[in-house]
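Lecture notes, continued. The same structure-token format from the folding unit now serves as the input rather than the output. Read the line below as a description of shape only.
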């Protein structure tokens, strides 16, 4: 499933190798051997025998990350790296994310990951810990996803399952001596385990590369069409009564969303006399209709930008310099929601929001000896938020906010045979997103709009040390890291009775923990995998001093064992355990621990000439446990719980050429 020495194999193969893998997330053209940071690379073989419905399934077992599937598509999965982004009620916070080198994170720091079908992810890199020196705003970690094809093949697959699941997908990959081209299309829908949780996606994407002399030109284009309902979260009493129910208010007001999301980019990488020059230009557009319990939101978003860098690795000192530019423009209209329809004659907000980000960075690696190296770098970011109020029904709320942030990192690594030891100190910052800025506190039942004048960025500094590689004589692949982070001016969510969320800066956090991942081929046909996160995350300032950060369990364990019988059949048992966690900042409401076991059997191929047929069946939550797989932190009225589905079955049949 994974290899902890910096490279992981896919969950459908027992083969795990340790090549020198170039890491894109660090922007330093480092390998997994030379990186002085906790970085993990997961390679997924092209397969028809893994469901891959969610990022939780696709990225399962990577250390340091926790992904919780809400059980519906209305809010997206919660993605947390060392606890960063725990406040997110929707979307992803505290994480820089990329797809084939194109940002999925907007200039304001919000990431939207639903433009890609997780089943087509071929490679994932996770850079853990404060990382703003590399990519700027929301740099609590960096996630690089890739779907670039690497072989000539055509594949079709259909999967069905419990609770009305239907997932059809097809892909094609072609290649020549100087070019590669790939494309995919998929449609996923489900009625859902809970009431009012039906909906799905249609996704289309294409990627390609052309190699000309000393240059590589690559392009990517992805489209996603979404139409989903949202069931809302439940109180403890509602969860105990019937976890399949929806929040009644969400049904009455037709909570859900429709969106069209397009993302494209063009990259060039070329060898020059000064070093390797890399440049990327990108553009995205998103049209959203979002029915909420307190409003109807129409949001038109356009964003784009580019980044360029020059890297030179001649001699004992390697260096990189670069610059980034991103710009985001939102046209936001908010109306009263009346029985699931917008009252366009009752305007709550009508405003244009613009975010501009400009940054420059420099980094260097010094090879003191063939085994010992030092790294360091710094970056400066300037971000401006501006808003033009078009409603003017409560005076002119137009205004702007600007931030400047200096980020830096310094570290060292030591190579000992097949092991790499490393340590570093680094920083990051995270601004409020536009959505968080405009959601000002509700006073006397009135929502005035404009930017929250009391809200600012949170800042993080972190120290980590770790080891990764292969233990000599055992064949055991290991990735282990310990970290200590301090967060000040943290961004904390608050929620009103009707469901509106706003934010405030509230004191300091201390995040400490240990991450461990092991892959152990017990013999040629058996492989065991384990990933464990110990997260000791606490508030260290009044009024919450000594309390645990909500939404993150102290212990999180994923483990699996995979057995192959013959060359074609595979049996895999996997389990996930999460200890209890708190749902609110005051630590008054606790979410119980849970353990869930999945069982899968697959046959990788029946060969019919040049065609290959594969099949699989999976039972999820084998022992039919009832638990809350996700939660809404600090939700009003104790509506914290997002129930996970009970026992379910998924089965699929695929055809490839």
């Amino acid at each position: 499933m994974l290899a902890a020495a910096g490279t992981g194999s896919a969950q459908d193969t027992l083969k795990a190798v340790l090549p020198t893998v170039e890491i894109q997330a660090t922007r330093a053209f480092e390998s997994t051997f030379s990186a002085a940071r906790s970085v993990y690379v997961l390679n997924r073989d092209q397969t028809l025998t893994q469901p891959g419905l969610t990022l939780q399934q696709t990225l399962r077992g990577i250390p340091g990350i926790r992904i919780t599937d809400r059980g519906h598509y209305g809010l997206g999965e919660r993605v947390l790296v060392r606890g960063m982004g725990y406040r997110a009620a929707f979307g992803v916070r505290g994480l820089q994310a990329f797809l084939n080198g194109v940002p999925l994170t907007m200039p304001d720091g919000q990431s939207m990951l639903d433009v890609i079908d997780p089943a087509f992810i071929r490679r994932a890199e996770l850079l853990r810990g404060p990382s703003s020196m590399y990519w700027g705003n929301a740099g609590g970690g960096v996630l690089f996803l890739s779907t670039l094809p690497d072989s000539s093949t055509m594949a079709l697959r259909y999967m069905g399952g419990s609770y009305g699941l239907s997932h059809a997908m097809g892909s094609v990959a072609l290649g020549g001596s100087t070019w590669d081209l790939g494309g995919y299309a998929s449609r996923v829908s489900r009625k859902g385990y809970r009431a009012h949780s039906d909906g799905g996606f249609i996704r289309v994407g294409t990627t390609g590369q052309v190699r000309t002399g000393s240059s590589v030109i690559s392009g990517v284009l992805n489209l996603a069409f979404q139409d989903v309902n949202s069931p809302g979260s439940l109180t403890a009493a509602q969860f105990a009564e019937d976890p399949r129910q929806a929040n009644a208010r969400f049904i009455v007001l037709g909570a859900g969303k429709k969106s069209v999301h397009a993302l494209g980019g063009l990259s060039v990488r070329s060898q020059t006399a000064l070093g390797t020059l890399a440049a990327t230009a990108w553009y995205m557009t998103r049209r959203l209709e979002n029915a909420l319990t307190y409003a109807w939101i129409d949001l038109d978003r356009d964003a784009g930008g580019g980044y360029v860098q020059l890297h030179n690795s001649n001699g004992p000192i390697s260096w990189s310099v670069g610059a980034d530019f991103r710009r985001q423009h939102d046209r936001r209209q908010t109306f009263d929601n009346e029985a699931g329809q917008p009252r366009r004659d009752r305007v709550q907000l009508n405003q244009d929001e613009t975010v501009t980000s400009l940054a420059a960075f420099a980094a260097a690696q010094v090879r003191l000896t063939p085994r010992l190296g030092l790294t360091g770098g710094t970056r400066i970011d300037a971000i401006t938020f501006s808003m033009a109020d078009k409603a003017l029904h409560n005076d002119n709320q137009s205004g702007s906010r600007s931030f400047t942030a200096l980020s830096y990192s310094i570290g060292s690594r030591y190579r000992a045979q097949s092991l790499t030891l490393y340590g570093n100190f680094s920083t990051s910052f995270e601004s409020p997103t536009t959505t968080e800025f405009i959601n000002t506190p509700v006073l006397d039942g009135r929502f005035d709009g404009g930017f929250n004048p009391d809200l600012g960025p949170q800042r993080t500094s972190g120290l980590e040390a770790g080891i990764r590689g292969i233990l000599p004589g055992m064949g055991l692949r290991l990735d282990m890291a310990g970290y200590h982070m301090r967060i000040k001016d943290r961004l904390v969510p608050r929620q009103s009775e009707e469901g509106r969320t706003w934010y405030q800066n509230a004191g300091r956090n201390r995040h400490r923990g240990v991450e461990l991942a092991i892959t152990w081929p017990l013999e040629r046909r058996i492989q065991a995998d384990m990933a464990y996160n110990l997260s000791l995350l606490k508030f260290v300032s009044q009024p919450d001093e000594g309390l645990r950060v909500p939404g993150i369990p102290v212990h999180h364990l994923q483990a699996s064992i995979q057995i192959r019988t013959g060359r074609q059949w595979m049996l895999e048992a996997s389990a996930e355990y999460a200890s209890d966690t708190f749902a609110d900042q005051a630590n008054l409401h606790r979410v119980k621990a849970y353990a869930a076991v999945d069982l899968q059997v697959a046959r990788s191929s029946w060969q019919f000439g040049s065609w290959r047929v594969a099949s699989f069946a999976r039972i999820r939550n084998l022992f039919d446990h009832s638990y809350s797989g996700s939660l809404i932190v600090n939700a009003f009225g104790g509506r914290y719980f997002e129930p996970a589905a009970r026992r379910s079955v998924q089965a699929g049949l695929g055809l490839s050429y």
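Point for the exam: The longest helix spans residues 236-241.
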